[in-house]
Amino acid sequence: MIKVEFNDLKLEIPESWGEIKLSTYERYYMQSPKTKMEQVAFIAGLCNIDIDILLESPAQVFNTIAGITDFVFDNELPPSNKVKIGSTEYFISFADKLTLGEWVDAENVISSESEYKLSELLAILCRPIGEKYNPDLATGRAEMFRNLRCDKALPLISFFLFKKKRSEEILNHYSTVMAQADQFLKDTKAFAANGDGIKLLPIWQRIRYTYLIRSLEKQLAKCSDFSSTR
Fold first, then answer.
1. For residues 227 and 205, what is the distance between their CA atoms, to the nearest angstrom?
2. Quick one: DSSP state of residue 148?
3. pLDDT, tens digit, for every residue of 118-177?
4. Which of 65, 93, 145, 154 has its CA 20 to 30 A from that of 133?
């Protein structure tokens, strides 16, 4: 913390993510202050300072505090799927390993009006390795994650964002391959319908051609059904 003094007031200003709790980050991370008043309110909340104190202080004091806390606009810490709290390591569960109960509770958190969604999601999805999900532990775990310093918490949040980005990239690539395969099938069937060389093939090759076309159609249909349920 950096101490700033003026008018007999002593303020402690955080200068790194290691000095801010996740609970504070949760209340302000969605804000994007544009006007000067919004910036003052943002800094006051971030530093737990009465906004009237900042409004009554010299402009250079606010500028100094804003400069110290400028690090909050760079929140892309390297992703990590684990964190050590005390003597215990907590790991984020992968999507394909989640139980139905975890999915339901996570969806409820996302759709809720809570301002502490990040810590509540971590309470559901992040736990010691080998431990089964227990919703009765969620409240206490959420409080634990809210009190976690951001230098430890934000890599977990970055991991969520990283996985989301990778999933979107894979889905886009999958859609491209599906479109190309579908176009290939259409072109091949049109080619065969026009008799371009197919009728000259031996009967066994024509039978194999028909079998392969039907097989490709079935595979594309299965992929389309799978895609629609994602």
1. 33
2. S
3. 899 899 988 898 888 898 998 999 999 999 998 898 888 887 765 445 444 444 544 555
4. 154
